[in-house]
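Sequence only, no structure available. Ideas?
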Amino acid sequence: SSAKQMGRGQYRNEYIAALAATSSLVASVACAGWSSPALPILRGPNSPIPITPDEGSWVVSLLSIGSLFGPIICGLFVDRYGRKPVLLVSAVPLVAGWLFIVFAESVGMLYTARLLHGIGYGLAYSLTPIYLGEISSNAVRGSTGVLVTVMAKLAFLFEYSVGPYVGFRALAWISLALPVGFVVLFFWMPETPYYLLARGNKKAAADSLRWLRRSSTIDEELGRMEKLVLESKQKGNPLKQLLLTSSNKKSLVIILLLSFGMQLTGINAILGYSQTIFSRLALPLTAAELSIVLALVQLGSVMLPTFLVDRAGRRPLLLASTAGSFIGLAMCAVYFTLDETTTDVLSPEPGAAHGWIPFGGVLLFIISFAIGLATVPFAILGEVFPKHIKAAANSVFAVITSAVVFSVVKLFQVISDGAGTYVSFWIFTGCTAMTGVLIYLIIPETKGQSFERIQEIMMRRGRSNETGGECGDGAKGRPLLC
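Reply:
I predicted one. Tokens follow.
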């Protein structure tokens, strides 16, 4: 009976450490969700700090500029000081940012707060997957990985549910509790065994692994870890290998396509401005209530890929996701085109049936995005790169994503104010259609392939590109793979 109990509770400490680490994402992603309830207050008649639409777009988008620095700080310090101390430090800019908002008297203080939030956000997003990957045993790696997305969606739900019903400064005080809570929880967690072995501290690594696995028989696993650490040290600079090795360059193209494809759907603009978008709809629910429904649907949707990604495969999920996103965005684009360019087609009465069309379109988009584009790129990111350059690939992915997010979020407000919201939605629809075509032509299927087999396919593809030879398996009919 005790053996059976141990079997059930064997991974308890790993889950505790994973939950404590991913609470950093609740704290940091709350900063992204904050703009949805905060913008209507800042742009309203009783605004604590009156701002123009252009200043509002900077308040939303400066988070992405700040988050560019997160992966850079991570790359500089994570191997020098360790995963745990640097992840704890990510809470410092978050706390400072909320205090700036609490005491803000000018739009400049809001800008500073958003840049600080971005730094904390970028750090948490770069570091948490590294920490999870190094503490999790194979049996729980999938579920701890999904925690990253679930915790992020919880943060949106928190801000959307609390924000509309408390004051502007009260929301900042409440949000300040999230990074403080993360520090209190994570402070007691161990450093990763990999980092401790890399620093030559085998005794501390053994203690850490013993606590995580709840077992005293760890010698075999510790030996495997030592071997991996030694191999990665012998292979030299990971960034240089990422950019210069032929097979890695092919993998990088795949990751860049997925990164651009994810963001050019407009997901961050729609989430950041959801309350502003919904305030335009003639519906019996308020914009705040519609945002809460959106956040709940989003949280439910990200659970789906957990069950689907290893059954349906990567390509089918990505293609279904892009198709659904395209239809949802097109519904919104058509509605806003009629709303903004005609006077007699849509009724302005609250509760008019067609008011549900764009809301349904946004929900279809959110669900479709969640089943593939939101999660599958992270699964592929973990599969197409050798272990010793995953961290470097992660950082490149994060930097490029932040840059694209900034452009999309900033331009959304500019285009919507200058030309109309419908123009922004048509651009998102067109970009999503193009992403679907490129996914069909370029992305390989990695379902059920061993890590070694995937590396073999990427290498063969790299060589065939250089020699003009044949394509690898699964590339026939998709010439861009070569």
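The longest helix spans residues 12-42.
Hope that gets you unstuck.
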